[in-house]
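Input.
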Amino acid sequence: MTRRRRNILLGSVAVLVVGAFVVANLRRSGEKRTDVRVEEAKRRSLTQVVRATGKVKSATEVNLSGTLMGQVAELAVREGESVEKGQFLLRLDDTQFVENVKQAEAALHAAQASARLADAECDRATQLVERKRALHSKGLASEEDLEVAETTFLTAKATCDARDRDVTRLEAEVRAARDNLGKTSFHAPIGGVIARLNIEQGENVITGTMNNPGTVILTIADLTAMEVVADVDETDVVRVTVGQPAKIRVDALPDTSFPGTVTEVASAGRRTGAGVDEATDFEVTIRFDQDVSQVRTEMTADVEITTATRDSVLTVPIPAVVAREKKDLEPAVKGKRGGASAEEDGASSEESDRARRAREDLVIGVFTMKDGEASFVPVRTGISDDRYMELVAAELAPGEKVIVGPYQSLRNLKPGKPVKIAKKSSEKKRD
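Output.
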């Protein structure tokens, strides 16, 4: 082969290679690319929190109710006043109860006198029967005389026992009457503040029944130890445990937060709402870690409970984490618009997210952008905060770009689909 022919052949091959490359690029550039937004996967420190709203109350709170009906004859405290343990608070009209004590005591005294008389009769009958037995043994008393003496003795002893029982019964009545009299006076069971005073002097106290609560006269609260009782949703309460730290914000004190600690998590929930709005909440108690003199009971407060923390872990924005069925992870066919047919897109839009998550063949992962195409990377997630999610296991390195949106584009995205970074608004205006 001559040099001329060899040069011509090499030139033809080069033209064919360049032409094929150009044709491939033209065909590739002709495919419609999906505009996407991307962010880098980075190492961050995450703090996962559970948020809830509740009411402030004192950790120790005592409601005083009347066990007897009566009119308030004396009221010695006012609402908001500080009291010490054992301090006199109020007194009901005790006229009837004083008289009941007097009657019970009089009846007891009479019974005691009768018992003493019965004791004397019993002693005399005992001496008599002993003499009759001695005489009978010597043949100086008849059998009939002995029987009469023994009968008299048994009668006197029975009478004595009955009088003793009367004394015991009346002593109990005296104690009960004195107890009722004592219940007309109320003293502070704990030291604290009169948080609520629901009655005034001259009003009547009503006792409770099986179906109707009685009058709550007043409430004493120990304001040195305050807490928040918050309603936590059932989906969040599984992450809450006793001892976790929390941040408390009281609506009445804006721009101020207080440290707290979870002290109690309810084991049973309660339903709220109805129909589609029905939900199950669990009461979680968070104790203030410091004295909060400005805070009052029944104030509304928001709590943020720290349930987990991670330092320097690989994270991606939460919208980047998606779920895909295994069949949807097959690479998109070149030249097909969007990598999914219009029928598939329509079916996908009709299927709810909840139903998709319920499928057993779902794969959790993120889409990365490589060489102008979308690539799916399976991941295993950990905790999350408001913006980012931890990747516990993933073939992803810090600095790699993951696709975070737009939502509709990310929803229908498949591996191998041509993508390009969407221009920012300022760039579009310049163009």
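Residues 152 and 184 are 49 Å apart (CA to CA).
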